[in-house]
Amino acid sequence: MSAAHATDVLVIGEALVDVFTGPGGAHEAFGGSPANTALALGRLGHRVRLATAIGRDRRGEGLTAWLAASGVTVESTDTARTATAETVLAPDGSADYAFDIAWDVDLSGVAPSPLVHTGSIAAVLEPGADAVERYLRNVQSTSTVSIDPNIRPSLVGPGDRVRIERLLALADVIKLSDDDLAWLAPGSSPRAAASRWLEAGAALVVVTRGARGALGFSHSARVACAAHRVEVVDTVAAGDTFTAALLDGLASEGLIGAQRRNALREIGVDALERVLSRAAVASAVTVGRRGANPPTREELAAAGG
């Protein structure tokens, strides 16, 4: 990537170890939605820091090394043990999760970047969620704020909708899945929900719909993007890769940083189509291979992204 488009990115959120059980037996792998997004952004050539909470144990050491290999710098609050997620893979490659995590993070010394991304468990699990919300409020004057709610049903209750809606009101970029949409705004169409969040302050709302592709809504454009066809191995990190490639595309269009907020709000059809199409290709590369293994910039280009 050219130096002009390489962006300093801060990702805030959980990094953990996935303990997989499924048709192929049991094994462990590194993951966590924000960590996956950080990894994917690093592979796409950005300068990425991950503010997280990792234990000083064998799993934590492995996680840190895994992220560092893709250019991600870890700024960690020490915890008693590294979090895990028991991940059950169905025959169709879809995944369900059961978490063992304590989310408590100190962000007081973490410097902001032009792009700040968060979501998933970090957005709702106390006490760390309070620190995340305070941090986002403090960086609105300096940073593009991106949020992927990535709802984990086993960790949230109806009352968490209020907290998540507060966070979404702080976001410039909201990326969510159709499952997230159904939980956050039951009965609402993607267009209706996106209109509400745009009116609340967002510049761009993107809804991913699996094999049905993605929908993008800005203040000046509405775009439908088809999914990129691929033989699915599993869906682990598919949405996280899409998020990373979406943000990478916005960086390539020169739309990152608080000073570019108005330009981001006015992103047009052509630019939004380019960004979403490339994100769809990146996600397809990831679902075409096992685990959280997003493409490098070179692999994405080779795949047509």
Calculate the terminal CA-CA distance, rounded to whole Å.
13 Å
Tell me the total number of β-strands.
Answer: 13
Helix content: 25-40%
Q: What is the level-2 CATH architecture name of the largest domain?
A: 3-Layer(aba) Sandwich
Total of helices = 10
Side by side, the strands of the main sheet go 5-4-1-8-9-10-11-12-13
- Approximate shape: globular
Low-confidence stretches: none
The major sheet is characterized as: 9 strands, mixed
* Backbone CA Rg: 17 Å
Quick summary:
It is built from ten helices and 13 strands. With 305 residues, it is an alpha/beta fold.
Descriptive overview:
The structure is a single chain. It is built from 10 helices and 13 strands. The protein has 2 domains: 1-108, UDP-N-acetylmuramoyl-L-alanine:D-glutamate ligase (3-Layer(aba) Sandwich), CATH 3.40.1190.20; 133-292, Ribokinase (UDP-N-acetylmuramoyl-L-alanine:D-glutamate ligase, 3-Layer(aba) Sandwich). It is an alpha/beta fold and 305 residues long. It has helices at residues 33-43, 58-68, 128-139, 160-168, 178-184, 190-200, 238-252, 261-265, 269-287, 297-302; strands at residues 8-12, 16-22, 25-31, 47-55, 72-79, 84-89, 95-100, 115-119, 144-148, 173-177, 204-208, 214-218, 222-225. 35% of the residues lie in helices and 25% in strands. It has a 9-stranded mixed beta sheet, with helices on both faces. Strands 3-2-6-7 form a 4-stranded mixed beta sheet. It is globular, with a radius of gyration of 17 Å. The mean pLDDT is 93.
